[in-house]
Amino acid sequence: MNQPDVVVIGAGILGASAAFHLAERGYRVVVLERGAPNREGSGTTAGNLHIQAIHTRRPGQEVPVDSARLLPLQRRASDHWSQIEERLGADVELRRGGGFMVAETAAQEAELREKHEWERQAGIPTEVLTGDEARKQLPLLSDRVRAASWCPLDGYANPLLITPAYLTAARRLGVEVHAFTPVTGIQRVGDDYKVLSGDRSWTAPVVVNVAGPWITEISALAGVGIQMSPVAIQMHVTVRVPPVMHHLVQHIGEGMSVKQVSAGNLLIGGGWPAARLDMEGRSSVSVPSMAGNLAQAGRVLPFLGGLRLLRMWAGPLAATPDEMPVVGEVPGHPGFFVAGGTYAFTLAPVWGDTLARQIAGEAPADPVDDLGPGRLLHDDASTPVSP
Amino acid sequence: MADVMAQSEADVAVIGGGPAGLHAALVLARGGLSVVLLDESDTLGGQYYKRRAEQLTAAFGDFRPRGTELIRQVRDSGVDCRTGTLVWGAEDGGRTLFTSDVRTGALGRVSTRATLAATGAYERSLPFPGWTLPGVVTPGFALHLATMDRVPVGQRVVLAGTGPFLLPVACALLEVGARIEALVELNHPYRPGFSSIGGALRQPARLAEAARYLLTLARHGVRVEQGSRVLAAHGDTQVTAVDIAQEDGSVKQLETDALCVGFGFRPSTELPRLLGCATEPDPSGTEQLPIVDADGATSVDGLYVAGDCAGIAGVHAAGVRGQLAAHAILRRLSPERPTVRLSGLRRRARALDRFAELADRLYPLPTTADIPDETQVCRCEGVSAGEIRQAAATGWNDLHGTKAATRAGMGPCQGRECGHIVAALAGRNEGAAECFAARMPIRPLPMAATVEGQEVP
């Protein structure tokens, strides 16, 4: 299929979701992936389904996220995730055990109450509990927990399963997935884009750039300057233990997320910075971040101190300079779409659906004009690479 | 971090207290450098110079007295010997090492000017139907029981696999009263007039050693069945029988209560790989070895490797390589010292290397293509060969993708046991040995110290 309707660049969760949603509408789609699908941020992320608003800054994050703006999209994502296993015909270890967002200080508790109001307006059910009320529901929480916001819709999906599940479902609908196929050039040919990988090429009227941290590089091939601020963050996982906790536990003041996955391991994350972002190979973990993240998690959930850390890893996060997601067609470049940025895991079904609607010329289910790529454009895109 | 990790400094850290590490530490300390020797075990000695418990030493005598003497010399030379200390991570080209006290979980950070990894090797296991049954063990485990505890692993033992190591294990088992039903050797190393015998003649001592073992086996009437292999182990709660494919293609069944299967050794390279040192495939094509110069210097400045972790060559080569690496570190850190003549050591190292190459040729590994689909490959996560092949067949997955898709290599051993098999089953490029990335912590790390160590900011 050298002349598909859409070429999707990147087989992370967004590429997989976009391909699936487009194929459901009958589009002929080719997905090009430089390495193995799901190998980068999508496969190294925590897998949290953030339905209630979370902390506004990762450790070290300069610009806070506009939590209130994102809540309607999270509400939409919640509905998508509820149907996802049925829709994809796959088990992705989806769990909707609900989540606690804990506060240790008065200021943090005030933050919980503030966001509770936004959540109410967005139609997301949350409840602010006292520390004792929270401990009654989850006795593993320490006395340090002063208050907690409870959202029954929070959950988890296995990031190692969801992207392959999307790709498998997309393949059933006729999508071609080409792994180990790095895009080396993008040319404008009439109203179409000719996407090259070495001596192979695909020509289509629509290109979807969902290359995560490489969005800038891929855009530059098409002469589009898009500014991203990719970072590397790290995750920690303990050995397997019998089921102890089916909730997602997070911290409103600092980056922290803890949950027990289906296999029994506890995943501890929260966006702590890795030692180094390596765009060519594997990013390396930071021992101070490990110590910080584990100490903080152990403060909230002291039973973690009795476990062993099995492994940690770092992966890229395709952040934007304003920390808000990006989705939509690039102004001045008809047919060239971009999606990425923070919350890509939770919002993946929403962004797949949004891109499919936009490409079909329909209005998205929720307005996203303010999240378009126009705000990230700059003039100094490198010259497109010619073959 | 400062408050949770005990800090210490040394000119050189040597990781691993086996033959390579002991010899190196001794040279370094006698050369005037401050040396910290870190080993995960309770005692120094590594696998080869393993220490027998006091009561057993009193009853049965010292095990490998050369090791006792070497350890005494190392301690007397002023080396800071820290046993029970796991090195679980490293940074800065090895100049920062993260440690954990195996008993208390207390964390430490060691800062050095140079580091020598002498982390040894693992036994190589290859899966076959029934290999996870109780009673199926590695030859090294059987040897440990026989030599340290004077206990036979079974009454009727079948030894199988390939490699010269099966011979001393068989002899040690006989010594503690086990009956050996058969020694099933995959290859044909033991026939007179082998074309490469010239290579071995340069090491007459090693050849004589093998001949002595074979003689002992013959005296006890042990059958050495060459060109044969284990097809499957049977049993309900314990291995009771083994199917052996014989050279003529026929299959016979042996009754047994212990099956020891091993295919030589695999270098333990996590630490150098974690530090990003350049690697190349080993002679078997299934492992990635650090690329080193004649002194064990890696591509990472200040990081040296010696002993089996730099390529399987055995105890004698480990000692020599450890000394050469130590001299290189001395030249680096104490350039004012007078030059030491090392031509004798270097000659010996080259001769031992040739012997190791001969062993590689005599005992080639079997193909993984024969592993039946239903055979479990990753024991930690319960992943079969078929599942791994299936994940690879999507065409989407490299080795890491295969791990993600199947969970193979995600358990407590982090793929140390199965990684080389998963790599062979999932290999996309013929011949290019991929391996799982080395990650911190190198061993599962107790979290208590980290979790309790830090106060609210």
Question: Any descriptors?
Answer:
heterodimer; A: alpha/beta; FAD/NAD(P)-binding domain; D-Amino Acid Oxidase, Chain A, domain 2; six-stranded mixed beta sheet; disordered C terminus; B: 457 residues; alpha/beta; Arc Repressor Mutant, subunit A; 24 strands; globular
What does this structure look like?
The complex is a heterodimer of chains A (387) and B (457). Chain A is α/β, with parallel strands linked by helices and 387 residues long. Chain A contains nine helices and 19 strands. Helix content of chain A is 29%, strand content 24%. In chain A, a hairpin with a 2-residue loop joins strand 9 and strand 10. In chain A, helix 1 packs parallel to helix 6. Chain B folds into three domains: 214 residues, FAD/NAD(P)-binding domain, CATH 3.50.50.60; 139 residues, FAD/NAD(P)-binding domain (3-Layer(bba) Sandwich), CATH 3.50.50; 59 residues, Orthogonal Bundle (Arc Repressor Mutant, subunit A). Chain B contains 14 helices and 24 strands. About 2% of the residues of chain B have low confidence. Chains A and B meet through helix 6, strand 13, helix 8 and strand 17 of A and helix 12, strand 24 and helix 14 of B.
Produce the secondary structure layout.
The complex is a heterodimer of chains A (387) and B (457).
Chain A: E1 6-9, H1 13-24, E2 29-32, H2 41-44, E3 48-49, H3 67-88, E4 99-103, H4 106-122, E5 127-130, H5 131-137, E6 147-151, E7 155-156, H6 159-172, E8 176-178, E9 185-189, E10 192-197, E11 200-204, E12 206-209, H7 215-221, E13 231-240, E14 248-251, E15 257-260, E16 265-269, H8 287-300, E17 308-317, E18 326-329, E19 336-340, H9 344-359
Parallel strand pairs in A: 1-2, 1-12, 2-8, 4-14, 12-19
Antiparallel strand pairs in A: 3-7, 4-6, 5-6, 9-10, 10-11, 13-16, 13-17, 14-15, 15-16, 18-19
Helix pairs in contact in A: 1-6, 1-9, 3-4, 3-9
Chain B: E1 5-9, E2 12-15, H1 19-30, E3 35-38, H2 54-60, H3 65-76, E4 80-82, E5 85-91, E6 96-101, E7 107-111, E8 114-117, E9 121-123, E10 136-137, H4 139-148, E11 156-162, H5 166-175, E12 179-185, H6 197-201, H7 204-219, E13 224-226, E14 229-235, E15 239-245, E16 251-255, E17 258-263, E18 265-267, H8 270-274, E19 279-281, E20 288-290, E21 303-305, H9 314-333, H10 343-362, E22 376-378, E23 383-384, H11 385-393, H12 399-406, H13 419-426, E24 445-446, H14 448-453
Parallel strand pairs in B: 1-7, 2-3, 2-8, 3-4, 8-21, 10-17, 11-12, 11-17, 12-13
Antiparallel strand pairs in B: 5-6, 6-7, 9-18, 14-15, 15-16, 19-20, 22-23
Helix pairs in contact in B: 1-3, 1-9, 4-5, 5-7, 9-10, 11-12
